[in-house]
Amino acid sequence: MSPFEHGEVFVLDDGGEVDLDLGNYERFLDIKLTRDNNITTGKIYQSVIDKERKGEYLGKTVQVVPHITNAIQEWIERVAKIPVDGKEGPADVCVIELGGTIGDIESMPFIEALGQFSYRVGPGNFCLVHVSLVPVLNVVGEQKTKPTQHSVRGLRGLGLTPNILACRSTKELEENVKEKLSQFCHVPAANIITLYDVSNIWRIPLLLHEQKAHEAILKVLNLERMDSIAREPKLDEWIARATIFDTLHDTVRIAMVGKYTGLSDSYLSVLKALLHASVDCHRKLVVDWVASTDLEDSTAIEAPDSYKTAWNLLKGAGGILVPGGFGDRGVQGKILAAKYAREKNVPYLGICLGMQIAVVEYARHVMNLTDANSTEFDPNTKTPCVIFMPEGSKTHMGATMRLGSRRTFFKIADCKSSKLYGNVTYVDERHRHRYEVNPDMVPEFENAGLQFVGKDDTGRRMEIIEIPNHRYFVGAQFHPEFKSRPSKPSPLFVGLIAAASGQLDRVLQDRCTGHAVSEKHVLSNGSYTPAIHQNGHPKKLPNGLSNGTYYGNGNGVHA
């Protein structure tokens, strides 16, 4: 999946490669989803074709209706019974996201399936929230309702009637606009929610709560009665996090050196993990995007201004991060970034490919192995520091990588990575790679001073590297960003931000003693207590963090 077309590919514990929207749900709800939570047209058609080949349709003509639509409904009902929050038993409510835009031909079978589904389960068991844009004409500042009116008309023409309208706009909807939408869309004014621009994304759940969106949903689903399973949301800690974010002033600059810098969604989870860590360290995050190709010598000749700008950004950053990627474009620039970080003692975090190029750089410039390379970029290299994994496939690209949650064991207890994780003996992190550090060269690297502090259960697969006498030089073969949460930021990202802001020694000490630097710790010891006002009254900050809900819109269907 091209990052330019889809954004990042999010990886789940079970190895599922899915749309980045599922990452949003995991982060906001602190849950673990599976590959079956991502329903695609290809999966549905494949399942129907497989059934037909097995003779399950008894030779009948297989059609979109009823076979495809039935398969979609069966998939939703099956997945809805699988718990994702760590508790036993099925969930009380299943959230289904139907992405795209009304009228898209790709989503037609899903719309028809949900129309049939809503009719079959009946009122009180199905609540449809329609997300729509209410644009504002800058010239006169008027909020236009026509796009929403037409999309609701199109939706009703396809057999679905919205119960709630979630209207996206730059500012809060005016009352007369709500009344107009209610009249033309046949939705009660109380069920028209406005999602306007806010200072940070963590305020969205608070915005929904303030407009009683949860009560509207509960009413449609007949869950609002006193003896129901519904409870008042506990959002005090969510308020604390959003407030802390808005009060941060001291900045920390991180240079993101990659090849897809033209589309920030390509590194969405990395950005979110940096954000979680920066709030944890009470720093305002500033990300400087550096195209790795702009750091290369060829750019100095072809585009000297771009070359100068890229190097100025790199040299002005407090920390450097090289994320994962595929292909040889821009690799030399990433190697130069790793070299600069190592030589200038600048905090560095390399993820997946970022770790591999750090190993190649070390071999070339510390061990004087000038022809060192990865077989991904030079299959005939005489010094293969990074090699293709034996179990991989070179003929089939889809789902043939080392994917999903794998265990990493710490081999050096006193290393920075182990301390950041709380001195545990192992961690489970998510992977997505075809190449690995050549295990036959590991003794040579270790003799030259590069430590492989984390390895898999066999001891043959390198997972984490460190340079011990460096402020913070860490590489991880796995992707720690996929398991970062607002209340539980990824330890390796916390290490990078802490090192870049001069807090690493304190953070390591706190983590070793079991006092992680987080909102919970900082708020409880009284060193950071911004005032929170609710309904005009000061409110004491709570001592922890909790989960919230984010209603998003995107492509694909997620149950």
CATH class of the largest domain: Alpha Beta
Tell me the strand order in the biggest sheet: 11-10-12-13-21-20-19-16-17
Q: How many beta-strand runs? A: 24
Radius of gyration: 26 Å
- State the end-to-end distance: 21 Å
Average pLDDT level: 87
Helix content range: 25-40%
Morphology: globular
Proportion of strand residues? 15-25%
Largest sheet: 9 strands, mixed
> Uncertain regions: pLDDT < 50 for 5+ in a row?
517-559
Number of helices: 20
Task: Please identify the structural class as seen in this structure.
Answer: alpha/beta
Domain CTP synthase N-terminal: 1-223
Keywords: ATP-binding, Glutamine amidotransferase, Ligase, Nucleotide-binding, Pyrimidine biosynthesis
GO molecular function, one term: CTP synthase activity
Organism: Zea mays (Maize)
